[in-house]
UniProtKB/TrEMBL annotation:
UniProt superkingdom: Archaea
PANTHER family: 2-OXOISOVALERATE DEHYDROGENASE SUBUNIT ALPHA, MITOCHONDRIAL (PTHR43380:SF1)
GO molecular function, one term: oxidoreductase activity, acting on the aldehyde or oxo group of donors, disulfide as acceptor
Organism of this sequence: Picrophilus torridus (strain ATCC 700027 / DSM 9790 / JCM 10055 / NBRC 100828 / KAW 2/3)
Gene Ontology biological process terms from the UniProt entry: branched-chain amino acid catabolic process; sulfur compound biosynthetic process
InterPro entries: Alpha-ketoacid_DH_E1_comp, DH_E1, THDP-binding
Pfam families listed in its UniProt record: E1_dh
Signal peptide: none
Residue ranges occupied by any Dehydrogenase E1 component domain in the UniProt entry: 15-308
Protein name, UniProt field: Pyruvate dehydrogenase E1 component alpha subunit
Keyword list, A-Z: Oxidoreductase, Pyruvate
Length: 333
């Protein structure tokens, strides 16, 4: 059943975003295996949650993602911005200085991805403090994996956010694995219940179901803004691929969810949109073909783009360039 705050067009848009993320994710993983992309963080299994986050965030909200947020990033900053960074092109906002999927965009209110697990949570909480102090509209939304809930940064951030009543929504993309460590061995309680220790609300949702995730995140954003208190969402999903391209999940994982299985987020939304008579099998197939062709063309285009020039090597580092840097610049020009 479609509720009043989500239309058929919204669901189709979300589905297209999920298909885009799936095909792009597979394409980038393949390029890495061929040796043309040095490193990649697969997102397969997270598509419904990413589409929900991307659709629920408003213009005034600040988004602080973690390294596995391809679909959310595309929704926030656009495919071109992401691919420019992914392939370290001359259009890359980071000037080729960071790993793939480590984006930032000040104009779009997207904080810089930090590689260290949970390391960005204190930064996101700090942004929320600035929002409250400056009385800015909107809230801060930050994402992280279940492994991050075992870090000191998570607990410090949760406590600080609660004590100072900060407008921050913590979303745990609980994909069951902290690299090779299963969630049941990380914690004795459900992740959603950890919020109680700090005096605010935690909820658990199905992160594989787009419609449920969208409503939960949208309502949580409203609650944070209205109640002027943080909130924690434990969004249960499943990492269908490896942690990174440096990982082999077959060495530690017995349960495998393959594409097309009932728990695959794309299977779930496709079943929903067919039951609701929003799209039929032929229309679903056409969308997949269209997006697959588009992804192939866009990736090929960005693979061929020029890299940042050597003159950018020292750009955006010093306000007043020291003499020895000036000398070094002369040596490479």
């Amino acid at each position: 059943m479609i509720e009043e705050d989500i239309s058929k067009e919204d669901i189709i848009s979300a589905y297209r975003n999920m298909v885009l993320e799936r095909f792009l994710d597979k394409k980038l993983l393949g390029i890495n295996r061929q040796g043309f992309l040095p490193f990649y963080i697969p997102n397969i299994g997270h598509e419904a949650l990413h589409a929900a986050i991307g659709m629920a965030i408003r213009d005034d909200d600040f988004f602080y993602p973690y390294y596995r947020d391809l679909g959310s990033d595309i929704a926030r900053v656009g495919l071109d911005f992401v691919l420019a960074q992914m392939f370290s092109t001359e259009m890359d906002n980071e000037l080729g200085r960071d790993m793939p999927l480590h984006i930032s965009n000040k104009a779009k209110k997207v904080g810089p991805v930090i590689t260290t697990v949970g390391g960005h949570l204190m930064a996101a909480t700090g942004v929320a403090y600035s929002y409250k102090y400056q009385k800015k509209p909107g809230i801060v939304i930050t994402t992280f994996g279940d492994g991050a809930t075992s870090t000191p940064d998570f607990h410090v951030s949760m406590n600080f956010a609660a004590v100072y009543s900060l407008p921050v929504l913590f979303i745990c993309e609980n994909n069951q694995w902290a690299i090779s460590y299963p969630v049941e061995e990380q914690t004795k309680v459900e992740i959603s219940k950890k919020a109680e220790a700090y005096g605010f609300t935690g909820i658990k949702i199905d992160g594989n179901n787009f419609i449920e995730a969208y409503h939960a995140i949208r309502n949580a954003i409203k609650d944070v803004e209205k109640n002027k208190m943080p909130l924690l969402i434990d969004a249960v999903t499943y990492r269908m691929g490896p942690h990174t391209t440096a990982d082999d999940p077959n060495k530690y994982r017995k349960t495998i969810i393959n594409e097309g299985d009932p728990l695959d987020p794309l299977s779930i939304i496709e079943d929903d949109i067919k039951k609701m008579k929003i799209l039929n099998d032929e229309e679903i197939s056409n969308i997949k073909n269209e997006i697959n062709n588009m992804v192939s063309k866009e990736v090929e285009r960005y693979e061929k783009m020029n890299k940042p020039g050597k003159e950018t090597l020292f750009k955006n580092i010093y306000e007043n360039e020291p003499w020895y840097i000036t000398e070094e610049r002369g040596e490479i020009e």
